[in-house]
Amino acid sequence: KAFFEENSIKVHIPEGKDIDITPLAGFQFDGFAKRLVKYCQSKFAKPTPIQACTWPLIMQKSDVCGIAKTGSGKTLAFALPYLSMSRLGQLEVFEQPCASPRFVAMAPTRELAMQIAEVCSDLGLYPVQCIYGGVPKHDQRQALTGTGVDMAICTPGRLQDLVDEESLDLSSVQYLVLDEADRMLDMGFIDVVKALIGKMPKAGKRQTCMFSATWPATVHALATKFLSEPVHVGIGSVD
Ligand code: ADP
Ligand code: MG
Question: Which cell locations does it reside in (predicted)?
């Protein structure tokens, strides 16, 4: 069992898993699109610890559990690898607008979903749709069928509604992120999240990352069920 501990960064690798866990020293990274590296360099001095540790793991296609407090830069930690891959043309380009996203991020609240969607819209090449409840479904449905969607940033309830009415199909999801997993569970989204994941390609055909500020047993159990040999990265005094 490999275990690495330094500066209150804890990385845990599943037994027998062969992966390079060296954190990035800067934004420069072979797999990243130049434009995104420049964007980060122009805005920030250096990667935050959660970014430095999780970027290489996600780029190596590993499932990851990232535990770090609020404000530690988790959005770019999970979004930048996907944005990079899509910018570099490493994904197939849709021939026509398609309501079958390759990237789905679930977040507990509309505000959080909107914050993630804003970052993705600023930096992405393909359509980003933010899907949340409390507003009529019409505009969201219209956008899905009109513009299509590559990155769907969702609250679980509304995502389920749109999937159930077949406005959105989850069979093309390659990269799933459960953001603020602890809060999603606290808010009672567990059954909805499980049902939605059941409609996606199976673990192994899909990369899954989970981000959370805390790591209670319920979040651990969710990770065990839906992530495949995840590497755990904990920043600060979480365990
Ligand atoms: P979290 O999801 O962990 O709560 P966010 O992703 O919302 O954190 O980021 C919090 C703030 O930190 C945002 O304003 C974001 O632009 C900023 N940020 C992201 N990456 C960095 C970085 N490498 N250095 C400094 N600030 C950053
Ligand atoms: Mg966040």
Answer: Nucleus, Nucleolus
